[in-house]
Amino acid sequence: MLSSARFCSQSLFRQFFRISSLRQHATPLVPTFRQCLAKDKPFKSFSQVVPQPGIRNQILFATATSIALYAYAADQTNKDTEKWTAVARERGKMLINFGGPTNQDLRKYKKLHIVKEIQAGYDKFMTALQSWPTQLKVNVSWLFVQVAQPYLDANEGRRAAAGLVGLCFATWILWKLPKTIPFMRKSFLHDPLSGRSYTLLTSVFSHESFVHLAMNSIALTACGGSVWFCFYMSQEKAEHGLREADASWHCLAFFITAGLFASLTSHIVNARWVFARLVSKASTGLATAPRLASQLQTEAKAAARKGILPSLGISGAVYAGLVLTAISYPQAVASIMFLPIFPVPIQWLTGAFVAFDVICVVRGIQIFDHFAHLGGAFFGLLYYNYGLQWWNAWRLLLYRPGIAAQGKKKS
């Protein structure tokens, strides 16, 4: 009896143990709600789906490029001045004013050298055309003179601007070649949402439309002459005692850096203000449901892409030149290319352009890159107050003994 009872109790215990074991390790056929949530991927935050564009790399690139431009331009100006100072002392001992050659003396000898080079090139060119018909040679000679004479008559600022216009024209041709369009869109358009930095510089010389290119080219050439005159008069009045045979490098550094500063201004404003405003507007009413949140995030990202467009053009440098001229010579007059018979004070013209961009920014109207225009105008204002000191600091840093005027010490 006892053994039988023990046997019965053992069998019941084992059977009960097996049933509880099956219940513990059995997998339900239908997953629970908590298990479904555990299998889902973690939901990304709004800032992860729509990240804010950066500005650190762009600021570093613009700063490093500007420093390199001015260091190179100042060094080339010093070398050029030293060369023509030696030439003036050697060839014009009787013509040089007391105390050493002046800036005008250096420019005179350099211009005579340019005239001789152009004349030598003309003679070689016409010699190569000896076998051509007489009338055709006359036409070619006339065309050569029409190109060479304006170049000789132009001051150094206009020549520097002409070089930039030629570079802009070359990029415009690349825009018209079907095979290079993808490359141009990637490398010669600055998109604040792309994260690229080098396009801050390359987009300055990029013009997709011929009308855009023509208007900026005319304005830049006009500003080149007035900017050069500002630099020339500043050097004449300066007390640092540095000669300057040619201001072309100074004008090039000014215009390129102004365009770069304008692009950087547009990038920072779009990345920090316009982007946040567009995304905030598109994400208003963001729900907590994952599907609805993802949909709104996609819409916010599309809104940022639609509201922040890529930019290109050298108009920021034009604005810098206009503001610098208007502040330096407020009594000067200028004419609009479409209304040449109605000259207006340059301060009025520059103020109207700046006011137009400010109104467009306030009203949310997007016709041009108005932030780049305003950035260029601000650069011109800064340069009027601190630009000459910045330029002379680089020239003194890269000082050469032959460029100092006699009787004046290096400061």
Brief write-up:
By secondary structure, the chain is mainly alpha-helical. The chain contains 15 helices and 2 strands.
Please tally the β strands and state the result.
Answer: 2
Cross-sheet strand order for the largest sheet: 1-2
Radius of gyration: 35 Å
What is the global morphology? globular
Indicate the structural class. Answer: mainly alpha
The overall pLDDT average reads 81
Characterize the biggest β-sheet: 2 strands, antiparallel
What proportion strand? under 5%
List SSEs in N-to-C order. HHHHHHHHHHHHHEEHH
Number of helices: 15
Distance between the termini: 123 Å
**Level of helix content?**
over 70%
Task: Point out poorly predicted stretches.
Answer: 1-23, 285-291, 406-411
Question: What does the secondary structure layout of this molecule look like, with pairings?
Answer:
Elements (H helix, E strand, L loop, with lengths): L1 H24 L7 H7 L6 H4 L6 H36 L11 H26 L5 H20 L2 H20 L5 H7 L11 H4 L7 H28 L10 H35 L7 H18 L7 H14 L4 E4 L2 E7 H18 L6 H28 L14
Antiparallel strand pairs: 1-2
Helix pairs in contact: 4-5, 4-11, 4-15, 5-6, 7-10, 7-11, 10-13, 11-12, 11-13, 11-15, 13-14, 13-15, 14-15
